[in-house]
Give the backbone structure.
Amino acid sequence: LDRSTTFLTDRIATDAQLGRPVVVFNPLAWARSEAVTLDATDLPDATGVVTSAGEPVPAQMGTDAEGGKTLTFLPNDVPGAGWKTFYVTESAAMASDLSVSEMHLENAHVRVELADGVVQTIIEKATGTCLFAATDVAAVNEVFVWDDDGCPSQIRPVDFMGSAPVVARSSQAERTVRVVESGPVRVAVEVAFAMAWGTFRQR
């Protein structure tokens, strides 16, 4: 695969714009728009990405799991079984309809409200419809641990949610919440909590 993509990139024009060219391949049979992340160790912090026509695309700086600097951008409509060339440049960040804090995540269509890292509501903005609301029973991103003895007959699993005792639930654990991505490609909040079985991280 590496040899094949190298063969192609050696024959693709990469001089349409100033900046570092990045060729994005799409091995699927249909057009695709999906975030791409690059190692940005040697890139300046004020980094943007443009198409071959010079049009900016959403791009943001970040870090990987080891703390290394990354650049994530959103290629638009890369053709099926084809490619598009983009250029990494020094430029200001694009405006975005994404919004994030430790208490919420929001785009043009949906708003998610959090309380100490636990999802409380998911609202469809166009209609104001509440798609989900947390209760005392459970929240959408809550982790439960049950004391499940299994089913002796092995005919069907025990309905442990209704009968087995709850050993632990993440909403009752001490949690830390922090914004880890703030757009314009995507936003993310990381929730970390410790239980007897180890430390969990949710994004």
Observations:
- The longest strand covers residues 82-90.
- The helical segments are 2-9, 160-163.
- Residues 24 and 58 are 15 Å apart (CA to CA).
- The two ends are 31 Å apart (CA to CA).
